[in-house]
Amino acid sequence: MYRSHTCGELRMEHVGTTVTLAGWVQRSRDLGGMTFTDLRDRYGLTQLAFNMEVNADLCEQARKLGREFVIQAIGIVIERSSKNKNMPTGEIEINVTELKILNAAKLPPFTIEDETDGGDEIRMQYRYLDLRRNPVLQKLRLRNQVALETRKYLDSKEFLDVETPVLIKSTPEGARDFVVPSRMNEGQFYALPQSPQTFKQLLMVSGFDRYYQIVKCFRDEDLRADRQPEFTQIDCEMAFVEQNDILEMFEGLIKHLFKTVRGVEFEGAFPRMTYAEAMEKYGSDKPDIRFGMEFADMTDLAHGKNFVVFDSSEAVIGISAPSCSEYTRKQLDELTEWVKRPQIGAKGLVYIKYNTDGTFKSSVDKFYSEEDLKAMATRANAQPGDLILLLCGDLEKTRKQLNELRLNLGTTLGLRNPDVFKPLWVLDFPLLEWDEENERYHAMHHPFTSPKPEDFHLINTEPGKVRANAYDLAMNGVELGGGSIRIHDRALQSQMFDLLGFTKEEAQAQFGFLMNAFEYGAPPHGGLAFGLDRLVATMGGSESIRDYIAFPKNNSGRDTMIDAPSPLDEKQLKELGIRLRG
């Protein structure tokens, strides 16, 4: 028996008990006559005590223990003379009588402590050591709880957990596919699924009625804090449902998860907002509604005052930053330079200070009177002491730029508390978006999304105005998940492919299996997929999903621990019938 108890288990009621512990050496302290060693496993820390007067040889052995040595210790639980109230086991220690080194360890490249001295690169290279740190362990423990409670909830609602294939057909659904060459079918390739979309629809055709899967998905796209090339979805589908059925079902899931995992309860139904309203008020389809600072369209108030920058712009939009009228010129200049960065792309920033005495001071005083500025302040719902900030230009670009500025200010002003959670359903997305470069429409979600029935009449005449029967759940500025009511009629699905520029032959070659299935009695159906990584990171109050994934990739899509991706040798390439260019 390597251990009788874990390192986080022992308490005062165990005093006098002989125990066996095993784990890793966190640190040692040599105090001359006494040596103390903190022993760690995934459950916690326990202090081991070695007394030179009682057993000098054992104490000398303890002094030679290095960080991360794997050891076994046998001893008697005693009450600590100097208690540590910050440790669950801080009232006791082990008076060690036997010590065995199970495995010595090299000095780790960074300290395995809550506050480590290791940078991102070195910690990713030695991820198996980083995973020993308590903050990372707790993040993965949170992920485990969320997955477990998800299964409990969905099982209670009669959902079946069904696995779908990982090697599938490459289909144009949005992002680029990862492809896998087939040795047995030379010159042909599988793709790794971006989602199980078509399979879950086929399961509805099969009569499964309610399906779910916690499933790996793959997208070959540029990475950022909330993206990885492989990620995990809570993927769900239901038959014989309308939009409201799905919203209520999965609103219930989110409420269940937050209550059982975080102890957070949401009262009442989640608020709902149309895509058009979200873009108008926040410039984002996943707005952070933990704070105000809604957009105010100033275009009519700003035009016609001989300020060329505004007069020549399609849109002039502002926000009111609370209690910021005391911003210095240096702070305003820094904000201006921030919005002019290439990532944001604004040409400049106009400010209006609404002073606490009710007067105004702005960077455009030359063109706008006190009454003009007051009208803008009123439009922005500003109060004395606030700072109004305005951007201008193309409507869509200006909204996106102002969204970034709003989020930046929200963070700076402490308005984005990670322990406050504000969910929002965003509804009625456009069905299609126009691709200027290729002069064609693309599906905003995917080609299987149903148009809203009341917009059917616009499909052939004004397809850009057709709204999708689609919905996203946003929380704290993050898209947690989304879905739609699907097309279940072959004729409508064929019409959708026509709109997207597929020839009849291309549609049949890519998606014939699905359209053929629709001819055998497809029920009305719809679904939703949550990004498990994003959901867990949001619940943990983090913006990055990486620490909630055991073995993540870096921003270049590389696993530096195992050095992947890596070249194939010539023999493997020959077996696959592949010759590399250059």
What would your notes on this structure say?
By secondary structure, the protein is of the alpha+beta class. It has helices at 56-63, 120-125, 127-130, 134-156, 197-205, 243-262, 275-282, 299-302, 308-311, 329-339, 370-379, 395-412, 490-499, 504-517, 532-539, 570-576, and strands at residues 18-30, 34-41, 44-51, 70-79, 92-103, 160-161, 179-181, 189-191, 210-218, 230-239, 272-274, 296-297, 315-321, 350-354, 360-362, 387-393, 423-427, 432-435, 440-443, 470-475, 478-485, 525-531. It has three domains: 12-103, OB fold (Dihydrolipoamide Acetyltransferase, E2P) (Beta Barrel), CATH 2.40.50.140; 137-272 and 424-548, Bira Bifunctional Protein, Domain 2 (BirA Bifunctional Protein, domain 2, 2-Layer Sandwich); 291-416, GAD-like domain (Gyrase A, domain 2, 2-Layer Sandwich), CATH 3.30.1360. 28% of the residues lie in helices and 24% in strands. A hairpin with a 3-residue loop joins strand 1 (18-30) and strand 2.
